[in-house]
Specification:
Blueprint: H1 2-5, H2 9-26, H3 34-48, E1 64-65, H4 84-90, E2 103-111, E3 114-122, E4 125-130, E5 135-137, H5 140-150, E6 153-154, H6 156-162, E7 168-169, E8 177-181, E9 183-187, E10 195-203, E11 208-214, H7 218-226, H8 240-249, H9 251-256, E12 259-266, E13 274-276, E14 287-289, H10 298-313, H11 337-345, H12 385-392, E15 394-400, E16 422-424, H13 439-455, E17 461-462
Parallel strand pairs: 5-16, 5-17, 6-7
Antiparallel strand pairs: 1-10, 2-3, 3-4, 8-15, 9-12, 10-11, 11-12, 13-14
Bound molecules: flavin-adenine dinucleotide.
């Protein structure tokens, strides 16, 4: 981490203190479940080390196997709400904290090179918020570069395209990295309670972090949000209501809720894309060009990931959680004609799959390539897997790097270069993909920068 964040020894010490403070205050041990233990045992049998359920340090990345503690908010009474928002709620009594919701920041205002506030739409009316000492940006790896660009910080091409007067030229929006994954799904006869975040091994030799999520409600809800069951080129937003209906109101959702997902976070993908504001109006989304698999080696990593996850899924301890053939015909009466039209408009064969379902659900019946039911099901011929992966790959939604340390923000201070009083504390500052899920690192950066500014007596405006 030191090398990636460019921290000196004092800063590094402070960074770890921030990390430990967050871990002590927010993280909770994962509930030990039958599935979780079976998954950990399967990962061990596949050669990734023995997961230690009792190691609760979880502050620093360690090569080897242990169980990462969780900060998920499941909004479920049985699970604690330990999330970033908790920190705000804990501080609501503070007289100098004013939180505005439903606010859209449209630009940062500058006086010469100094950030002096922001323009923000609150309930549709544009207001100016003055910053006495500074502005901290935390709009994420897609929207932080957008706000910077419309405010006059970006590369020459983008700023001249936007016709915005430059505050400073920096490679904002370049170096976009999105970590991809592929999920091996296994389906069990019995329904599993929802579970998240079973990260049981970081194997730096294989370059993969192994985790599992699934059970009731997870895959059906994710299928709606990501449309990820469908091939990537057919994931059109207009299919979302249809997928919602399929998952929430038909027996297909019930079947999908028997799934567990075995997945790997591939370390250090090299492909880089860009984020570019297309208009000064920030309600217009920026153009994101991901350039997936453009760098040599990224497809090989994804293939290795797929094979490693299939290997884990095939291990004995998971035999109760996977099935070899269909587990019952759903009481499903099919799509109506307008739904079929919609699917065909998205380029999907609406009725070519099992029980008159779309073809991409073929793996619900059987999947020869895996040896167990899995959706989507890869071709039996392994030479076709690269094409299959590029057609079906999923984002982990781990985006980074668009206002990167070193090139856009100063190491250690996280201040935007050539400016005063402007800081970035979100995933855009992280130049490459983290090896484990990113929220802990992002929150640590926020806490680290905030503590440093507080010690220096700098109050700030939160964007
Ligand atoms: C479905 C899903 C599951 C995930 N699971 C995990 C997980 O298990 N563990 C993990 O570590 N990570 C997970 N991630 C990734 C994680 O959520 C992100 O890496 C992380 O939230 C990024 O943090 P950030 O602060 O950079 O940006 P964000 O969390 O995206 O925060 C940016 C905020 O800025 C706001 N914003 C943007 N533009 C403006 C504007 N103009 N004005 C005002 N506000 C604005 C946005 O509304 C948003 O609230 C998951 C992501 C998704 C989508």
């Amino acid at each position: 981490m030191q090398e990636h964040l460019g921290l000196d020894d004092d800063d590094l010490d402070q960074y770890y203190q921030s990390s430990k403070w967050l871990a002590d205050n927010l993280l909770t041990p994962l509930p030990r479940t039958d599935y979780g233990e079976a998954y950990a045992a399967a990962a061990e049998m596949a050669g990734h080390g023995r997961a230690d359920f009792d190691d609760v340090s979880n502050v620093r990345l360690k090569d080897g196997a242990w169980v990462v503690r969780s900060l998920f908010n499941l909004t479920d009474p049985a699970w604690p709400r330990q999330t970033p928002a908790k920190l705000l709620h804990d501080r609501e009594h503070m007289p100098n904290l004013h939180v505005v919701t439903k606010a859209l920041v449209s630009k940062v205002n500058f006086k010469n090179k100094r950030a002096v506030g922001v323009e923000v739409f609150v309930d549709g009316s544009l207001q100016t918020v003055a910053a006495l000492k500074g502005v901290i940006m935390a709009a994420g790896a897609i929207y932080t570069p957008q706000i910077l660009q419309v405010s006059g910080i970006g590369n020459k091409e983008t700023l001249s395209h936007l016709s915005v007067p430059p505050v400073t030229y920096l490679p904002v929006g370049e170096n976009f990295v999105d970590r991809l994954t592929y999920t091996v799904q296994i389906a069990s006869r019995k329904k599993i309670d929802k579970y998240l975040g079973y990260t049981v091994a970081v194997n730096t030799t294989a370059g993969i972090t192994f985790e599992s999520v699934g059970g009731s409600g997870i895959d059906s809800q994710m299928a709606i949000a990501s449309l990820g069951l469908a091939p990537a080129k057919n994931r059109y937003a207009f299919l979302m209501p249809l997928m919602k209906w399929l998952m929430n109101e038909t027996p297909i959702g019930e079947l999908v809720d028997h799934f567990s997902n075995i997945l790997g976070l591939v370390h250090d993908p090299q492909s880089r894309g860009s984020v570019q504001a297309t208009s000064l109006d920030v309600s217009q989304p920026p153009q994101v060009t991901a350039n997936y698999f453009s760098a040599e080696g990224d497809m090989d990593k994804q293939l290795a990931n797929l094979k490693a996850n299939i290997e884990i899924a095939r291990q004995d301890p998971l035999s109760d959680w996977r099935m070899h053939s269909a587990f019952g015909t759903p009481n499903w009466s099919g799509f109506n004609s307008s739904q079929i039209d919609l699917l065909e408009q998205a380029g999907l064969n609406a009725t070519g799959g099992p029980w008159g379902l779309p073809e991409f659900l073929n793996g619900l019946l059987t999947c020869e390539a895996m040896g167990f039911i899995s959706v989507p099901c890869p071709p039996k011929d392994e030479s076709k897997w690269p094409k299959f992966l590029s057609d079906n790959v999923l984002s982990t939604y781990h985006y980074f790097g668009t206002a990167a340390l070193g090139s856009v923000v100063e190491s250690s201070s996280f201040q935007v270069k050539n400016t005063e009083g402007l800081y970035v504390v979100d995933a855009s500052a992280i130049p490459r993909a983290t090896c484990i899920n990113p929220v802990g690192t992002i929150m640590t950066i926020g806490h680290f920068v905030g503590s440093k500014l507080a010690r220096a007596g700098h109050p700030s405006v939160l964007v």
